[in-house]
Amino acid sequence: MAMQHPVIVFDAICVLCSANAEFMLKHDRKGLFRLAAMQGETGRELMQQAGIDPADPESFVVFDGGRILMNSDAVIHIWSRIGWPWRIAVLGKVIPRPLRDAVYRLVARNRYRIFGKRETCWVPTPEQAHRVLP
Question: In whole angstroms, what is the distance from residue 47 CA to residue 98 CA?
């Protein structure tokens, strides 16, 4: 799948993941990123391409320029590209990846229990809809 914009594939029934997606749309003023819910056709296909079961994900994925980023690398990548003051997240790279990813996986495995689960998938506002893939 050829992509003109970086694509974030996220869990649209996860309250934390949906909140992060909404935050990114609000603060990505240049409109760099696109979103795809892993419950949708495009998101499911991209998750499988990354080797992740979309029915049982423990990470979200960012596809950017032929690279596939997951776990803490994906978080740092997104936040460092949406502008100031969020760009400061790039400093997270000073923490060794195994430690960052261990914390990421702990939160990811427990995200529904800690933050909750939506009954239905998150839906973008009409103004955001052009940035969300089917």
Answer: 22
